[in-house]
Amino acid sequence: MTNTQEHATWGELLYSAVHTPGKLLAAYTAFHNYSFGNALLALEQCISRKIEPGPLNSYKGWLTLKRQVRKGEKGLCLCMPVTYKKCVTGKAASETSDESEEIQNEVRQRFVFRNYWFVLAQTEGEAPYEQAIPGFDLEAALQTLGITRTPFDEINGNVQGFAHQRVIAVSPIAELPLKTTFHEAAHIILGHTASQKLVDLEQMDRNIREVEAESVALICCESLGLPGAEAARGYIQHWLQGEKEIPNQSAARIFSAAQTILKAGNSKEESQ
Ligand SMILES: [Zn+2]
């Protein structure tokens, strides 16, 4: 991802979502089968072009749904993976063989931005199209992710929850138990808990790991319309006052972790 392109970076998209209540919900509602980075990217373009956000598909994809993209409609730009073959030369495996070098085609992947997508509002056709918003089952998500709950055994009454390896616990008197559950699960998905136990107090530490986990909690809570988004937003906004922005690399990890959790609670859909 570079800043020279006309679209916003992941960091900018996350910053804007953190400062605009409702944006994540709108993005998830309209574009839940896309990654969060792409969903926010699509939403930004819809807003700036005054197009109703809604189900997305390619030109051909709409045709198979018996809908035609209207003449003159310009596609929305999303990030997509492309695979390509690269010729690599390598020495033959055996030392005793002749000196001929093997030429192999190695399959590699990179990400490019393409204007291939159109929302429902840019199409016409006789067949109406409706997209169901996926349901979410938190315990099923934890199970799918291989995360188990352990009894809460911290004596400090300020501790909201903790995470260690693939185990989480949430205080029975946590202020926002769902937000804390997403936060602890996020620590695990983000790889924070492999070597240490993370204990979360009501006043969270100001470090990038906490911002990452809390951003995932924000995305999950807001996308699902669950309580906790406001508190998460407050913490992240406060953090952002000191730092200028959430680094792009963190933003990409945050989007991916949130997507992983939301998908895990909804086994029926495939992500693009
Ligand atoms: Zn934490």
Describe the structure.
With 272 residues, this protein is an alpha+beta fold. The chain has a domain of 127 residues. A four-stranded mixed beta sheet has the order 6-8-7-9, with helices on one face. The chain has a three-stranded antiparallel beta sheet with strand order 1-4-3. Helix 2 packs across helix 7. The radius of gyration is 22 Å and the shape is globular. The protein starts with 9 loop residues before the first helix and ends in an 8-residue tail after the last helix. The mean pLDDT is 86. The site of zinc ion has 7 residues, from helix 6, strand 9 and helix 7.
Which tags fit this structure?
single chain; about 270 residues; alpha+beta; four-stranded mixed β-sheet; three-stranded antiparallel β-sheet; globular; binds zinc ion
The percent range for strand residues is 15-25%
Associated small molecules: zinc ion
Shape: globular
SS field, number of helical segments:
9
* Extended strand count: 9
Order of helices and strands: HHHEHEEEEHEEEHEHHH
